[in-house]
From TrEMBL:
The active site is at D241 (proton donor/acceptor). Its EC number is 3.1.1.17. This is Regucalcin. The gene is RGN. The keyword Metal-binding applies. Its cofactor is Zn(2+); Ca(2+); Mn(2+); Mg(2+). GO terms for cellular component: cytoplasm. Residues 135-146 have a biased composition (Basic and acidic residues).
Amino acid sequence: MFVLELKWVGSKPPEIFYFYSHSETLLDQMSLKIEKISEPLLLGEGPHWDSDQKVLYFVSILEHTIHRYDPATGEHAKTKLDGRVGFIVPVDGTTDQFVVGVERKFLVIQWDGTDGAPAKTLKVLGEVDKDVPTTRINDGKADPKGRLFGGTMGNEDPPGNFERAKGSLYRIVGPGAPEKLCDKIDISNGLAWDLEEKAFYYIDSLERAIRRYDYDAATGDISNMKLIFDFDKNDLEGVPDGMTIDTDGNLWVAVFDGSSLLKVDPRTEKLLQKIPIPALQVTSATFGGPNLDILFVTTASINIKGVQEPPCGATFMITGLGVKGHPNANFKLY
């Protein structure tokens, strides 16, 4: 396993951080750097790289905002929605339509991507957990075929104290209503698919483990759940949060309360690399950039175990990893 050390000089954190390794065999890791690309958010989440528009979308759940960042210009735009928004995924074939999870509703909205411009609700795909009105939608992605997978989590009051086993995982195909895939979820989180391995990877954060399901790409069905990577067995602090996958089939897992990203081989169940992030509450990651070799990372700055000073809550981009990701899939509404 590679463990890198993050350092800066001086009292004020810089905009760019560099990684250092003490091992002579890891000198190539010296090129790794992490750059802050947004100001701190309370709960940054759900990064999605749009390969067509070459921009990054993400959300700030507790601030009810959706965000658009253009690395080519440095332009950062946002707008506010009517509730806590768990994710944002573009609708396939459009430039201004998105599927979002707001409170317990999956919505299709229209937003022109300019700062402060209002978002218009075009369609309600469905409201979930009507029998448990204290939950909210937390994370969602489109699978490789354009189906939407998204889940809910139990009420959090006060911050860090969760209702257990109240959430569920749902699937939405086209304009259809949400279908429940599994229940008794604490905090529905990271999702990733591997077509070659016929695998769907999923995280229920308080399980402190990664789930693997058999995945049928033709139907979107999942089955035969097993736990493949356990935080306790690997003596890791924090909980797994958002997740993405690279073209080698390795998972990149954000660790909330762990100040790190983990590179995990889900086939061998081994931890390959641990990358420090200059924020305690690391929430999610996705590959992007023109060559899909930049890792965009969201973080939070919630006062749970103490005040989270900047750059906590910022969105970062990591370059020099030497790996690439798959294009993020858009939601196929029709």
